[in-house]
Specification:
It contains 10 helices and 11 strands. It is an alpha+beta fold. The chain folds into 2 domains: 147 residues, Jelly Rolls; 111 residues, Arc Repressor Mutant, subunit A. A 6-stranded antiparallel sheet has the order 1-2-9-4-7-10. The chain has a 5-stranded antiparallel sheet with strand order 6-5-8-3-11, with no helix packed on it. Strand 5 and strand 6 form a beta hairpin. Helix 4 runs antiparallel to helix 5 and helix 4 packs parallel to helix 7. The longest helix is centred in the last third of the chain and has 16 residues.
Length: 271
């Protein structure tokens, strides 16, 4: 059965922290998948069978996840596999958006998937409130109520960090990182430390990931691609620079990506 994937946007003010809530449902699908870096942190609630991550080199089971887990910002591909079924709800936080809710340095979970053991009780209540994965409106309302109760204003993302993160994540034009940091009004070293703490990675890494995502969106639903028409739209020095950056972030070449991508352009089948 093909996996179904739905997106639920949240209302203000929650959309300043959360890009969207997603629902993934599928049966009898044990496909091994490569998940490409997307520049966000995701809190995942499982309503079905346990899921697992796979070791990057051997593709053997690395770790099982049963109820609730968090995927930090990834700077390399993540390998996953379902066990017979998928019934997941995910909260996809914008860069810097998870910090007011998690209240610890997000760099601690970068390039990791971790059990959300520090907030199990509250997630049990959220899971009970959601219950039905077919009622998307109710899911969005339950997540908004959860975030509203959790937000207490004691751990806010720095406004300059938010400004730079949003410029990188949302702007069509790519600005030099040095220029963005200069506009932030802090020393370079101090700002980078704040940014990594509150976003989970450096501005440079986030920019590289966002650039990858823009490339992926440009080739979405296009069967025939001339990569030279794509990379000239971005600040790559040449084709070799483009191919190197693409493979470093995804683990595969641009052409291999086209042959392995699924209905979700950020997921690639592992054959």
């Amino acid at each position: 059965m093909k996996t179904e994937f739905y997106i639920c946007p949240l209302n203000p003010p929650f959309n300043q922290w959360v890009q969207f809530v997603w629902i993934s449902k599928g049966k009898d699908d044990t496909t091994k998948s490569r998940i490409l870096p997307n520049g966000v942190i995701e809190l995942i609630i499982n309503f079905g069978n346990k899921q697992k991550t796979l070791h990057e080199d051997t593709l053997e089971t690395d770790e099982y996840f049963i109820n609730y887990w968090v995927a930090g910002i990834q700077t390399k591909p993540l390998f996953i596999q379902s066990l017979t079924d998928t019934n997941l709800v995910g909260i996809r936080f914008l860069p810097g958006g998870a910090y007011p809710f998690f209240k610890f340095p997000l760099s601690k979970i970068s390039d990791k998937v971790v059990e959300a053991d520090w907030m199990v009780e509250e997630l049990e209540n959220l899971k009970t409130a959601i219950h039905d994965l077919s009622d998307h409106k109710k899911i969005a309302q339950a997540v908004e109520a959860y975030l509203s109760a959790k937000f207490d204003g004691t751990c806010l993302t720095n406004e300059s960090v938010k400004y730079v993160a949003n410029k990188i994540f949302f702007s069509d034009d790519e600005m030099p990182i040095s220029e963005l940091v200069r506009k932030a009004g802090y020393s370079h070293k101090h700002f980078l430390s704040m940014f990594k703490k509150q976003v989970g990675t450096s501005p440079k890494n986030l920019q590289r990931i966002v650039r990858l995502q823009k490339v992926i969106q440009l080739v979405k639903d296009k069967p025939d691609i001339k990569w030279t028409d794509i990379f000239y739209e971005f600040p790559f020095y040449d084709a070799a620079h483009f191919a190197h950056d693409f493979k470093e972030l995804t683990g595969i070449s641009p052409d291999n990506y086209l042959s392995l991508r699924t209905f979700d352009e950020n997921h690639c089948i592992i054959r």
